[in-house]
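Posting here for the record, re: FE2/S2 (inorganic) cluster.
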Amino acid sequence: MFQPIGSPKAPVTVHFDGVPITACPGETVASCLLRNGITRFRTTPVSGAARMPFCMIGHCFECLVEIKGLGSQQACLTVVVEGMNIATQAGAARVAGVGHD
Ligand code: FES
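Prediction output follows.
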C-alpha cells in the first residue's frame, strides 16, 4: 500500500504491541504501521470500535497510539526512532496515577 520514496537508508526497528517491525528513518509512526499492514491503531472508549488514521496531517485524532508508555500520541505527527515502543491504545489514554486497565 505505502512505499518509501527517495534513496534507501538503513532501516530502524520499532516495536508495535511487542512485535518488532521495520521502519524507514524519517517516516512517521502512522506511515510505518500502515506500510506494515497494521490498521488498528486504537479503540474508542465507549464502543471499543477500531480506529485508524484518516487525515495523516494531525487534524482528526484517529491515529492515537501509546508511544513509550504515553497515551494519545498522534502517530501521523511522530517520527520513528530506533527501538521505539508503540502500542495500541485501548479506550481513553492513560493518565499518570489513573489506571483504566
Ligand atoms: S491521522 Fe488524523 S490526526 Fe493523525
